[in-house]
Amino acid sequence: MSPTLLCTSVERSVTKDAVMADISTSEVSVKPGEEFTMINTSNYRKKTTHHGDKYTNRMKPKTGLRLPRQRENRRTKANDRERHRMHNLNSALDVLRSVLPALPDDAQLTKIETLRFAHNYIWLLTETLRMADTFGQIPDHLQQHYLPASQGCIGSPTNKKQNWDESNGFYKGGMKRFSFCILSHNQQ
DNA sequence: TAGGCCATCTGGTCCT
DNA sequence: AGGACCAGATGGCCTA
């Protein structure tokens, strides 16, 4: 496990209340046909905000053939369940995003980025606890990787992509409101 | 305009 | 039998 320097936020916008709210809304149910409302819409990509009925009935059967009525009903119900399932999955991802270090208001981690970032963030917290346990405090050699808030804040949603290390799931550079660095371990 | 990301549909498989 | 889960296909939106 060889630490490498990464970046994320310590200036987290997640308050204790927000965390509790996330816990209380972790079970989000969306009924089939019901308009889906994202949790934390401020954190959600703008392009998804107009997903009202954008995709509704967009997909046509691959063949022009009409399915038998009973099969069609089964398919419709299965589609509703699948939609509902995916909405719940997205809700869970939103909850996860909300407890991760904050991003610029108009940016949002993709699904894969969210999972990788969460992985590294958990690793950082674990490592921090371990260090504190071992040394009684976070050692200097670790603290030196924590940038002051005034540094490394060059980012924008555009920069976010440029700074993102796809293979490891971390930020290589600073971003707005991103004010400290995460140590990442090699995942292989 | 190409590529990335996403929502949705669909059929297959597994489980209850 | 029906629901959950999964992966492939499809097409729309957005950005570089």
TrEMBL record:
One of its GO terms (cellular component) is nucleus. Residues 73-125 form the BHLH domain. It holds the Pfam family HLH. Transmembrane segments: none annotated. GO terms for biological process: axon development; positive regulation of transcription by RNA polymerase II; sensory organ development. Keywords: Transcription, Transcription regulation. GO terms for molecular function: DNA-binding transcription factor activity, RNA polymerase II-specific; E-box binding; protein dimerization activity. PROSITE patterns: BHLH (PS50888). This is Neurogenin 3. It comes from Oncorhynchus mykiss.
